[in-house]
Amino acid sequence: MIAVSGSLHGYDKLQRLISTDATLHAWNSNVSWDPFPASKPHYDYQYDAVGNIKAKTYFANPYTYGNTSSPVGVNGHCGPNALASAESGDVENPLTRYYTCDANGNQISETGTGYGSETHNLIYDAANLPTRITHRNIWDANPPITNVTRFAYGADNARYYRREAVGALPELGPVVYTRKAGSSVSPPETAYQLRDRLGEAFLFCKDA
Question: Which of 17, 42, 147, 194 is least surrounded by CB atoms within 10 angstroms?
Fold first, then answer.
């Protein structure tokens, strides 16, 4: 059977997406094109007076935002129109995420509570670039798993170093350095990253 899907989108006068309706047609060797497509869930999107999204059905409801009640960074306040919390749209396993910021408006923490818990904590340098991200959750294992990602930047603020959690690869600009304890590679292997005009890697290859 071949399934072909389609969707219809609705917009408001400001060209903001406000609804999506998906459909599914089916075709197989015994049945001609199905004139009665199966309906899929209807999605609605809501916005506040200044254009911040307030809710997405089947995803998150509601979103709350910061205001001018206190200066940015005081008690983690993120300021006007910055996301303060979002509640999962999953009725059976709800999860609410809360966000805090520093005095420069950088997000420094994300805490999820409800069905399990999850936290992200971020540290920035003087140029407001992230240097360390710590992710901790209790879904995958007990006791909780903690993963740390580290970054370093050059004088031009371009990132030249990234190291993921334990066992991952350190990244030195365009070079990825692999070190395996208790083993050796003879002769050494060289791998190359081919990048597009935006600097994103799209192909990896090795010496023949």
Answer: 194
